Amino acid sequence: MSKLHPTIARVTDRIIERSLESRERYLELMRIEGERHADRNVAMPCSNLAHGFAAMGEDKESIASQRGPNIGIVSAYNDTISSHQPFGQYPAQMKVWAREVGATAQVAGCTPAMCDGVTQGTDGMELSLFSRDVIALSAAVGLSHAMYDSVAMLGMCDKIVPGLLIGGLRFGYLPQIFISAGAMPTGIANKEKQRVRQLYAEGKATRAELLESEAKSYHSPGVCTFYGTANSNQMMLDLMGLALPGSAFIHPGTPLRQALTRAATHQLAKIVRGGGDYRPLAQCVDERAIVNATVGLLATGGSTNHALHIPAFARAAGIAIDWNDMDELSGAVPLIARVYPNGAGDVNQFQDAGGLGFVVRELIDAGLVHRDIMTVFGDDLGAYAREPWLDGDRLAWRDAGPSGDEAMLRPAATPFLPDGGMRLVEGNLGRGTFKTSAVERDRWTIEAPCRVFATQGEVAAAFAAGELDRDVVVVVRFQGPRANGMPELHKLTPPLGVLQDRGHRVALVTDGRMSGASGKVPAAIHVSPEALGDKNGNWGPLARLRDGDVVRLCGEHGELSTTADLASREPAPAPPPEQGTGRELFAMFRLGADEAERGGSAMLALAGL
């Protein structure tokens, strides 16, 4: 085994030390809960049990007698999200496959599954981040029935996997496997999609032309093919050993996809308590696994949304990781993948070039990840340095081999960049995230007068009026968790991209979110503290910025600052929270939310985690 890189070892040790008390409390709770729920016939009255298997038909007797393990299915199925549509057929299939190994399966519950792609730039986006809390709560409601020996988590996209992880970790005494539905086939070329979007932003393409282009890109069941938050989720599940190896991007409806889901069902029956190979989620998700997830994110240029999600689901396991840890890891982890929007090819081409099997092997060989973690399959993370295939009708795994396309995947010894390209920037404007791996190096430092906005719509109007045709730092504030739920500001990318293409020096600074699909414009995002003041009246520095203040964003030296004297100013008034589209129902989440660096969660904050 390769010796662990000293930076990886140092950061891991720091996280372990910082998390000693909280991790110990968590593991003790899981020990107590596991013992309490080990035998349903002891823990549950007969009436409760009868309610729980009343509708289970031919599986009733097996569940009642505990003849075999009972697998709970938590599904995020719906027809609106293309990646989740295939999950509609999974429960019926999994029940058959469970019976093949003497087990049973029943749907424990369903969770919401919200698509940022559908709600992008609309009112619904203000519910997006907090949907992660709702998903975690929904998973907890389903698992609270205490009928299950292991859990199949069916979910793929943006907030869904982090939400399922948070909810599942509070039942961490149960083994849990995350099951993907796979990636849709490739549509139109990404550069063509981006070209039409920018033409539309300039008024040079019609809405019909834009819709036709988008429909050719997002065109069938399966996850979107760009390397955004959804596909970064799937990558992290492999790096943490929580899914079957290499199962992330296999297309829906294929024999290999079905074979992987069948194997996951069989594995869930095998790794239960009392079966001789017990692998509870609480033991799988430890400090080393959290570091592995972060390293994978950095090595592949994954979504910046995980600067929020990793700290959030780590907290649910009693683990404390912060942006300083992520920044230090970024300095040691080379960028070995370039997938759109950081490169030309999509996740299907990434898979064809070697995919996650190649990535895991390179990271293990370079000593950049912890191989010796408990995984849901195989002896350790080494099982994930392979790719699945069908040897006739038999599911098997093989070495991923060398990169099939070095424009997309490179060995760790000859990377695209020597660092992971997700930098912490900080200064008198707060702390934020800058995804340098998506930006040309000559744009890592931008210093210009700022223009301050409170909404995306204000930016669009100023762009249309020609007011931003210059070197400018666009500041969009009052977009944090407490202000309006921290929506993703993806609609800013086309107009800012146009300004940059016109030769201007442009940057974005915001306390809102941008995704892994954000692209080429330098941006300091997730700025903390957010502009809106907390209950003690502590306003974030962005609230005191004014038009014309000179702002400096520097990814090279990790700087986010202004020359303006902010201390002498009163904060600008925040716009009141909007009503409609159910946003008023989420007031409790906004009021209770903590800062982005801790995950921007009301639920975890109020739970004292």
Reconstruct the topology from this structure.
Elements: H1 6-18, H2 20-36, H3 40-43, H4 46-53, H5 60-65, E1 70-75, H6 90-100, E2 104-110, H7 116-119, H8 128-143, E3 150-154, H9 160-169, E4 176-179, H10 190-201, H11 207-217, H12 229-239, H13 255-270, H14 281-284, H15 287-300, H16 306-316, H17 323-332, H18 347-353, H19 355-365, E5 386-391, E6 394-399, E7 423-427, E8 430-434, E9 445-453, H20 456-464, E10 472-476, H21 481-484, H22 493-501, E11 506-510, E12 523-528, E13 550-554, E14 559-562, H23 587-592, H24 602-606
Parallel strand pairs: 1-2, 1-3, 3-4, 9-10, 10-11, 11-12
Antiparallel strand pairs: 5-6, 7-8, 8-12, 9-13, 13-14
Helix pairs in contact: 1-17, 6-13, 8-9, 9-16, 10-11, 10-22, 12-15
Provide a descriptive summary of the structure in words.
- The protein is α/β, with parallel strands linked by helices.
- The chain folds into three domains: 6-36 and 68-185 and 220-399, no CATH class; 186-219, no CATH class; 423-575, 3-Layer(bba) Sandwich (Glucose Oxidase, domain 1).
- Helices cover 38% and strands 13% of the residues.
- The chain is built from 24 helices and 14 strands.
- The protein has helices at residues 6-18, 20-36, 40-43, 46-53, 60-65, 90-100, 116-119, 128-143, 160-169, 190-201, 207-217, 229-239, 255-270, 281-284, 287-300, 306-316, 323-332, 347-353, 355-365, 456-464, 481-484, 493-501, 587-592, 602-606; strands spanning 70-75, 104-110, 150-154, 176-179, 386-391, 394-399, 423-427, 430-434, 445-453, 472-476, 506-510, 523-528, 550-554, 559-562.
- The strands form three sheets. An eight-stranded mixed sheet has the order 7-8-12-11-10-9-13-14.
- A hairpin with a 2-residue loop joins β7 (423-427) and β8 (430-434).
- α6 (90-100) packs across α13.
- The longest helix has 17 residues, at 20-36.
